[in-house]
Amino acid sequence: MSNSSKYDLTEFTILDATNILEYATSRFAAIWIACDQSHVPRSPAYKASFVRHLQWEVDSFVFPYINICMVFNTHLTMTDLLRSILGRFSRLQTRNITGEQFYAEFFVHCSPHDPELRSTHRLVLKYAHDWWKDRFDTLGFALPSLDVNEVLDMKADHFEQLPMGAMLLPSPAVAGQVEGDPLLNQILAVKACIQHLGDSLEKMLQEKTMMAAAAASSMSELEGPMDELEEVLLTSRRP
Length: 239
Prior knowledge:
By secondary structure, the chain is an all-alpha fold. It is built from 9 helices and no strands. The chain is elongated and about 90 Å long.
């Protein structure tokens, strides 16, 4: 991940934030599944380490981007799964529940398999800083401080691992942006992304049509030999 140049937050759009939160949701789902299936003893030290690592997740991939949208006075949607997790973090941070209670509630009420949460968590094989795949409670992983460039790179890698993920990335050039008008810039970004997605879908459909035409041509070429084979078989059965 490169952090040699600072990202200009005036270029940051609600689409960037939405996709980062989807990436964060995917990470939480992967964490829930891996730790739920783990046979590591759930000691108090394990639970405290888990909560500390999960706090790093929201501090790295959620809270900064919600705050950016608030500064831009932009409403940000999120999945019910992520909303459920953040609700429990709010109770933890305001000392309405303990870390051990948070741990218990996370695994009872924040399952990615819960149909009521309607999560778009789309799991992938590889995640950066996947601390949950090892004994994080004893190995003492160093949790880095991530800048926006690194997070955007991770988000892009996440989408590239998904089927058709590259097509869905909101990466078109946005023209006509106005300095000091974040709302207009957000609208222009959404418009550019919709156009980009439409062009990508049109290209995909054209490719599928060409593939179907090639398949139909191949099938028609087989009709002659198949007719000849049928006639040979019929002839061989005649007395």
